[in-house]
Known about the structure:
The protein is an alpha/beta fold. The chain has 2 domains: 3-213, Alpha-Beta Complex (DHBP synthase), CATH 3.90.870.10; 236-320, Threonylcarbamoyl-AMP synthase, C-terminal domain (Rossmann fold). It is built from 11 helices and 15 strands. It has helices at 11-23, 45-55, 70-76, 81-90, 109-112, 126-134, 154-161, 200-207, 219-222, 276-292, 309-320, and strands spanning 3-6, 28-31, 36-41, 64-66, 95-100, 117-121, 138-139, 167-170, 181-186, 189-194, 211-212, 236-238, 249-252, 266-269, 297-300. The strands form 3 sheets. The protein has a 9-stranded mixed sheet with strand order 2-3-7-4-6-5-9-10-11, sandwiched between helices. A hairpin with a 4-residue loop joins strand 2 and strand 3 (36-41). Helix 1 (11-23) crosses helix 6. The chain is globular, with a radius of gyration of 19 Å. It binds threonylcarbamoyladenylate and magnesium ion.
Amino acid sequence: MALIIDxxxxxxxxxxxxxxxxxxxLPVAIPTETVYGLxxxxxxxxxxxxIYETKGRPRFNPLICHVADLAxxxxxxxxxxxxxxxxxxFWPGPLTLVLPQKPDxxxxxxxxxxxxxxxIRMPDGFSRAVIRRYGKPLAAPSANTSGKISPTSAxxxxxxxxxxxxxxxxxxxxxxxxxxxxxxxxxxxxxLLRPGGLDVAEIEALTxxxxxxxxxxxxxxxxxxxxxxxxxxxxxxxxxASEVRPGExxxxxxxxxxxxxxxxxxxxDLSPSSNLREAASNLFAYMxxxxxxxxxxxxxGPIPNEGLGExxxxxxxxxxxxxx
Length: 324
Ligand code: TXA
Ligand code: MG
């Protein structure tokens, strides 16, 4: 079983053991502000292989590389001026940039699945302190079995991967709760590859450039890991429910009851006060609770398609996609 260290009470021990474990080529579950990540030395092919093995993740699905500071990022990727501006405004934070990898970068091709670009971000929170101390970039996908819901607490990680990991760092619930927003600058345009924890409207307000939405048909090529069933709970998922059917679990938003909810197995509200940030931070934990209720179907009430609502709806749509 994994050793779990609370970073709030034992930060020094957490840092020391994390660096020792990473140095042995083993993955460590680390808290980022978005979701918990399964981190490994991005320059070590054995360590990277272990990420794919531990998650059961296809190797054509590239990983995000996490850096502690801009200097570390610049060692590995080529910045254009617009991407640089985005880092100044939003790093550390829930924004990932896809940028050309430098020829002399030591990040191993297993991290990028052989692409000539790298997805890179500077996370906030304790994970950044780990990277700073370790001194090398860490590749980290979400710390869950491939195809399952991303973990927003150390308990989620333990329940899913606890017997496959040496070390889990616990910093409490992830504040953002959704994976990072991924964008790629193409000339003077910005393309959204994955909606996430940074509201796209903030990028548009900063740059004055409308962000191009992902073409859903072409998504497989743009961001290879964005498979439709990425966020599958065991239960079926019903979107935009206007009423609840007997035996369903309901996840709603905005505090107003839905017809039929007396007969629901469980009723959860992502944010009774209609706050989309709060809803984002609750989404994955509530999906897991609804799944654990034993209901055959999770019904979602309507969620406004604005701000972080875009990323929340994206994740619910993936959870509702037909299963393989
Ligand atoms: O918030 C997050 O982003 C979390 C935390 C742990 O940082 N990480 C995360 O990683 O969500 P992961 O592996 O679940 O998602 C990585 C996404 C995939 O959809 C992948 O296809 C895309 O990033 N990606 C990685 N490298 C890419 C590249 N070079 N070009 C386009 N997409 C890329
Ligand atoms: Mg993931």
